[in-house]
Amino acid sequence: MAATVRQEPQEKERGTPLVVETRGLTKRYGRIAAVESLDLTVRRGEVYGFLGPNGAGKTTTLRMLLGLIRPTSGDARVLGEKPGSPAGLGKVGALVESPAFYPYLSGQDNLRVMARYSGVRSPRIAEVLERVELSGRAKDKFRKYSLGMKQRLGVAAALLKDPDLLVLDEPTNGLDPKGMADMRDLIRRLGKGDRTVLLSSHLLGEVEQICDRVGVISKGSLVAEGSVAELRGKQGLLVRAEPTEEAAQIAEKLVGVEEVAELGGALRLTTDPERAAEINAKLVSAGLRVSELRPAGQSLEEAFLELTGGETV
Amino acid sequence: MLASFGAELLKIRKRPATWILALVWFILIVLFGYLFTYSFAANPPDRPEDQPPQVQQQEEAFNEQILNGLLPENLLENLFANGVFSLGAAIVLILGAMAAGSEYSWGTMKTSLTQRPGRLGMLSGKALALALFIVLFVLLGLAAGAMSSYTVALLEDASINWPPLEELAKAAGVGVLTFGAWGFLGFALGMLFRGTALAIGLGLAWALAVENTIALLPIESDWWESFRRLTLGENTSSVGSIFGSPNPSFSIPETLVEPERAAITLGLYVAVFAVVSLVLLLRRDVT
User: Could you tell me if A37 and A54 lie in one domain?
Assistant: First the structure.
């Protein structure tokens, strides 16, 4: 099992109550481990991105958190309750995988069914339909909805209970670019305030745009957890100067440069990118020819590939 | 559980397939219970001119008996002893299989369960809603029969005498037990196979082919008889036989099980199928 790169919580995060907490959560199907010893923590009020390649175990984890499937071993708590318990689910809204509703019922009637299951009063249905901008098509049959409308109805159903925790599994799957942008905007709005959003996705850009914190899962195991900035790793500068060896010697002696690494004929300096002008002056005054100097932060994609051992998303 | 019952009622009530099945059930009663028989008895084939008067009288008396069997006073005999009501077994089996299996086919089981009802609450609501619709289908069958027999009485200018209320209540009970057992068999199969296609296919194959084959196989042994005593078809026939034959010329085939015992067996089947469904839902993952 790969070691997890876990960033320590910031001071202000330490006291924040945990909404989702798993310890050694494991799900096996015969000899295959879909999820392996997963330790996950999601804090109140954050938009947590659960990132991983297809088949990494994201949906299996979410299903376990919702009580749809039972873990083989390990423990999980969702809003302090056992997963799947009616008390816990009363405060959780979920859209797992594709939105599944009764095709012969209208969008509104589908929500009436869901509202009855969850004991929510009928006026709430109009509110959530308005929220996802489906009021105008509420009386159309679900089978006539486009994929984007189906996804929005799924989000509406998840919002019926005005949940403390919103679990969204690949909510932009299959949507066109406009639909994806709308959905991301909706998720951002829903994540404001005290509500916690647990968003599963294999889209790096999506997670980068929306999430406060990210957990990266690969082959059933959590391989990293932290903010997007933390996962990107330390920032630095890329310097191309001739002669390279001499440039490296000078750079190593500079105060504030933690590390110097050669990278395809250039140097990668681990340092504050704000120091670019100062470093440039030092190199030029030493008689070196500087042809390139730019910030060289690791992209989330690079970090992701590094963490997942090159697994494609 | 009541919240789930409300949700299930809304789903089953608004489902077109439910009302299509009800319409088919109504048509089956009218066609096979009354229309075909009435057409035969009211319009007998032309007699040969040299037919002896004695034979002619016998034929007329026979037709009259058949027509009498279709009158309101013989409503229950015609519906239950003639096997018309057992046609509905296949209908409610499909209804039960749809109530459970469709949730898996559409993937709505996960959507519904994440709304909070709990697996026990959800299944209780489903079972209650199915039970209510089984009662409605029984009443529909009785109403279709009553309407048809009333029409026959009008056409034949016969007096209209309905069975006593007590007998009607007994018929409703027999209908509910029969349909309950078959409906919940479909329900359990829907849960077992997590879909409707296999549940309906195997359920109908059992109801229409296997049960009849079992009844017809000429095996003379105690263990075979013991097995037959447990089959749904044998017990269904037995409870239906309590109303007697609508036609004195025909006697009802003897059944292996006493009606009281058959009633208990059918009730137990309802309970067993409901418990099996619950265990399946509680123990298995919803994927």
Answer: yes
* B113 contacts A68? CB cut-off 8 A: yes
In the DSSP assignment, the letter for residue A113 is H
> Which of A105-114, A179-188, A278-287 has the largest mean confidence?
A105-114
Give me the residue spans of the domains in chain B: 2-283
Domain boundary pick from A207, A231, A255? A231
B134 vs B129: CA distance, rounded Å: 9
CATH number of the domain bearing residue A279: 3.30.70.980
Given this model, what pLDDT does residue A54 score?
85
- The predicted model gives B86-92 an average pLDDT of 94
Q: Mutate which of B20, B115, B283, B287 to test chain A, going by most A C-beta atoms within 10 A?
A: B115
pLDDT tens-digit map of A254-282: 888 888 888 778 888 888 888 889 899 99
Task: Give bridge partners of residue B67 from the DSSP assignment.
Answer: none
Domain that holds residue A169: 5-231
Higher pLDDT, A134 or A308: A134
Average pLDDT over residues A13-21: 80
If you measure CA to CA, which chain B residue comes closest to A113? B7
Residues of B in contact with A85 (CB under 8 A): 118
CB neighbours of B275 closer than 8 A, spacing ≥ 6? Answer: none
Inter-chain residue contact B7 with A114, CB threshold 8 Å: yes
Question: Residue A239 — φ and ψ, nearest 5°?
Answer: -120, 130
- Domain total of chain A: 2
Q: Does B10 touch chain A (CB under 8 A)?
A: yes
Residue B110 touches chain A, beta carbons under 8 Å: yes
The residues with which A268 forms a beta bridge, in sequence order, are A238, A261
Q: Percent of chain B scored above 90 by pLDDT? A: 76
Percent of chain A with pLDDT over 90: 56
The answer, for B13 touching chain A at a CB cutoff of 8 Å, is no
Of A86, A98, A99, the CB nearest to B116: A86
Local structure of A68: helix, strand or coil? coil
Q: Are B4 and B126 within 8 A, CB to CB?
A: yes
Q: Does the pLDDT value for residue B50 go beyond 50? A: yes
